[in-house]
Amino acid sequence: MTRPPAASPLEALAPVTARAGYMMGVHADRAWTPDHAIAWEGMLELNRRLRREAEAILERDHELSVSMLGIMGRLLRAPERTLRQTDLADAMGLSLSRISRIIDILERRELVGRQRCPSDARATNVCLTDAGAARAEAAQGTVFGFVERAFAGRLSEDEIRTLAGIFSRLLVPPEATPPA
To answer: Which among 23, 68, 128, 141 could disulfide-bond with 81, CB atoms 3.0 to 4.6 Å apart, if both were Cys?
Structure first.
């Protein structure tokens, strides 16, 4: 029995690139080449896949979510491993209520503690415990290993520089970017 020929990279990516048409309709169909669709939808799909995989690894190995590690990582680098809860919400781009729910879980696990802010009685500080610091550092090592295997290790130094240049330009608001 013979195997069917392997799909070309373009054919293998067809379900991903088709999303451009689903989201932008005839506008994308008329104006974009397949490379445009692969660039845009590929970036979105890669982000989804890597985040899902990182989330699964963190949950399996450390009983943490990406958001939990994001909070703990910020606390780990903060002076006295302490930040205001509102500052954590702002830094994470999450609502105060969402941050509060995540911190509730971390606090029950004794990975963080809450205390009144000494300079503002209305504010609550969140402090990383020693157990939280140890868990965060271990989880960061796991995530680094995953990112090396799934992303950085699959690219050449030139490709990394190219991506860094592209994303640096795209992450700056268009009005702040000088013309090419």
So the answer is: 128
Q: How many CA atoms lie within 13 A of 120 on its CB side?
A: 8
Q: Are residues 68 and 138 in the same domain?
A: yes
First-residue to last-residue Cα distance in the chain: 55
Query: Do 123 and 86 touch, CB atoms closer than 8 A?
Result: yes
Alpha-carbon gap, residue 54 to 146, rounded angstroms: 7
pLDDT class for 31, splitting at 50, 70, 90?
A: confident
- Distance CA(174)–CA(97), nearest Å, equals 32
Placement of tokens 């491993």 in the chain: 81
Residues 27 and 114 in one domain: no
In a domain, 50, yes or no: yes
Q: Are 64 and 109 in contact (CB under 8 A)?
A: no
Structure tokens that stand for 175 in this block: 């009005």
Do 48 and 73 lie in a common domain? no
> Domain containing 158: what range?
63-164
Domain total for the chain? 2
